[in-house]
Amino acid sequence: MENQQEGPERQDGGPERRGRVRRVVTAAVAGCAVLGGVSALLPWEWPGGASAPSPGAPALAAVGAGVPAALPDLAELVAERERRLRAHPEDAASWAVLGAAYVEQGRRLADPAYYPRAERALRRSLAVRPKRNTPALAGLAALANARRDFPGARRWGEAALAAQPRRWATYPLLIEACTGLGEHRAAERMLERLRELRSGPAVLARAAAVYRDSGRREDAAAALADAAAGAGTPAERAAYLERAGQLAFERGDPEVALRHFEEAVRLDPDQRAARAGQGRALAALGRTAAAVRAYRAALDGQPRPEYALELGELYEALGRPEAAREQYRLLRQRVRTAAAGGADEELVLGRFEADHGDPRAAVRRLRAEWRRQPGTDVADALGWALHRAGRSEEALWFARRATEEERGGAVRSAAHMYHRGVIERALERYGAARRHLAEALRINPEFSPLHAPLARAAREALGEPPDEDVPEMEGQ
To answer: Shortest CA distance to 146 belongs to which of 43, 63, 73, 269?
Structure first.
């Protein structure tokens, strides 16, 4: 295997070894029961036969259901499948498992180098078993989602669904793809079908994401609370708490968000998204030194470009331009690394260029992204880039697309509302600008250490609406 990751050595034989295996299998079955059945969590089974349990069974169960897995368990699963494939290179199921595990490792570590390995493994699985190979098709859909290739994810997901229509674990992949494409009604229909087939924490967490995207934040928070309560492993619970923290921060409650993030990190120290969340919440609470440390911890284990952008903007807000420029340099480097692994980071790069680089370059990048996958976040970013490039009239169409429910922008985002208000102010639409800047600060008064103060200043500069005489009614 290329770039092998060897797990801890095991010695065969002996009652202690057999006991360990029994405990691992029992844990896997318990995790399966949480989501409604062993076969649902082990979709690597082929009609007429099943793969035997292995030392990587907990991660196998998690990966198969799209449930977060602990990084040590993932490493054990990868090492076990690599060893098996050296001895059995025509094992299509193991190639599919290995590819899916690589995808999850790439996501958790923000390391796009795993994605070409995942693609080779999944395509090898299809080559060995070209027909009715739903696990490999679904694995390619998960890979495309991880690379932010939502059109590709939808194609592979639809192929997996056609091969096995009642395989519930395919639906979350299609929901993610539809959301990335801005097709929120389609995502809601997929969720309805998923809930007909399955219940449990993983389904609740996916439902929460759909609720959040449709503006139903209370429903989303309730679903995440239930998902976290029913999670089968610490890593799974930590992932749902991290999402609950995101939701709390977005609705302007950094203290609650921080509690969720801290608990997530306690349960799973490898939960780097929660560490970045700690950075956001701490910055909003004015604890900026601790926020910097949290962001650095996040970047040490998961060097995502958006974390570098957020930390750079925090440094700018603190008056540390050299430190900010270093983060922006790292952002560009990580975007290039992502591209080498087939991952699309044009959205975060476009956001960066709009505010800190070349807005015209941002417009070019984001127009191409919009043509490919016109999601809500891309609409917001493109509108803002157009405004920054001096094209506010055109920008307003995209800002409306990102903020009006009938146009698909049901997410209640402080940043989106701020962008729209500033664009409207530039167009001298002062009443609308007041409303939307005030709405941004109402949603989350500390949505960004750099941009929230600018939103307040813009709102204050507009002043109060002018007094107007009330027209008299006839007959008075």
So the answer is: 63
